[in-house]
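Office hours follow-up: a student asked to see two folded examples consecutively, so here they are.
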Amino acid sequence: MIKRWRQILDRRYQQWITRRLPPIKKIRLDNRKLFIFPTRAGVVFLGLLVLLWLMATNFENNVVFAFTFLLAALFIIAVFHTFLNLSGLHIEGARASPGFAGQTAEFEYLLSQTGQRQRYSIEFSHPGVEPTVVSLTGGEVTSIYLAIPVNRRGWCQARRIRVHSVYPLGLLKVWTYLQFNSSALVYPQAIDTALPAQGAAGLGDKAPPENYMANNSGSEDFVGLEKYRLGESLRHIAWKQFAREQGLLTKHYADAIDDELWLDWELLPGLDSEARLSRLCAWTLGFSENQQPYGLRLPGVELAPGTGRAHRDAVLRELALFEQPKVAAGPV
């Protein structure tokens, strides 16, 4: 029963936070956006003040009165310093780095201020994620990176951030919740699988010869002569050069077949959509690392063969957004 009421209150609190602090691109923290409340240590401190005040009143002890007022003044000063540690801070959502399903997506935020105030021990965190603690010196601009776990491909919206500080004495905590309009692209989970043979991955519109992968010497464009190696076909021996006593050499040719490599959706029958995308994602990373030109064919999508990081990112983007909504979705 208590757990149920706690869940209801937490849900109402989150709804109230959403209405009070809607999604933004950048923000300057002020008294309308910050909350401040005593910590457990602060509550104990206030209880001690009440106890000392009662003792001073009961025994009419001026020394205890003075000590009580001194501690009360210290608490009031701590209120201002704790609040000012966050007040006036500028926070901007910068960029989001893509990630893979089953791993994390990283969001970058820029921290700055107009004055020269020193700010210490400011915590930034997502629910259930280890907080990032930063301090700001003067008017510098500081970048922080927050990573969140992602479980499925597509767009991942930035989660609500909790900005929190108990500086300087730990007697009070000042905090706020921020929701930024940032979204990261999540690629399919790249399963650990070996790269396919070139013919199995899709070799243009032509079928490769029977011995394409075993013997890549070709038969069209002459490349040059190389020293004969044991096991090579006798048909490729340069007999004229051998007759001239130039040694045993073999002729080598460039392949004349179209070796455009395609990552084709239709080449993975028997797998569900996510398993196909995961396999194609792993092959994309493998062929990109090997600098092999490759293209992508999905239902309704075709990317011409290419190489390089831009081509890899374009292929991964198509895999991530395949049959996904065109707009950014909620948290993943």
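And the second, which I mentioned at the end of office hours:
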Amino acid sequence: MPWRGHNQMFKKIIDFWHKKMADQNTAGQDLLNLVDRQKMPGHIAIIMDGNGRWAQRRGLPRAAGHRAGVESLREVIKLCCELNIQVLTVYAFSTENWKRPQDEVNILMGLLVEYINKEINELHQNGVRINPIGRVGDLPRPAVEALIKAVKLTRENKTLILNVALNYGGRTEIIDAVRAIAADVKVGSLKPGQIDTDIVSSYLYTAGQPDPDLLIRPSADFRISNFLLWQLAYTEFWFTSTLWPDFRRSHLLQALVDFQRRERRFGGLK
């Protein structure tokens, strides 16, 4: 009898999750029908937040949350490819994240290498170009080597540019740009009077790319956390209380539908 009770309980749990996934798929299809393919954002940026809280609520180690977040990233990349989004930028590891416990940092770096090794062939086949941004050279050697391999393999791909922000900070990016500009002014290849917004943009990690049209932040935190400070000047923000490991294509579609209903003025009047 006890085992029969356990089996019935597990069956109820499985049935619940099957129904939940079916409901999400139905909602996703309904939202997909509302998306205007002619008004898609060219560049989406996402702060992948909430992994630790997701794990904590389930009594799991934080590493379990980071691992669960990989599935969300996989779904988002796939949908961006389907919808012909040009650029997707994801905030994976900030310059401030080094302050976390060393064990967690080691797990994150290991998960990065594992993700690249496991996903790179499929990403390549789907036309995704991997573009790390940040002070990537300061990452552990295995991570740097895996990223170099991924960049070389995917550099000719055209479907989607995937910017992976690693050891990234918005202020650090601006500092690096200012230093590079100052160096060029010093040697005479750039005149101070030439410096404008376009020039500054050309010295950023995202040089040559459009600024984000849409920023998505899960986990109910209403801040940008030192992310793309220059590039977000006229970006539309979309926040959700959903934690990143629970973020699915239906959430991205909801963000897109909301984005397309907004009127963007870029500081002017229509």
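Two things to take away from it. DSSP finds eight helices and six strands in the chain. The CA atoms of residues 172 and 195 lie 19 Å apart.
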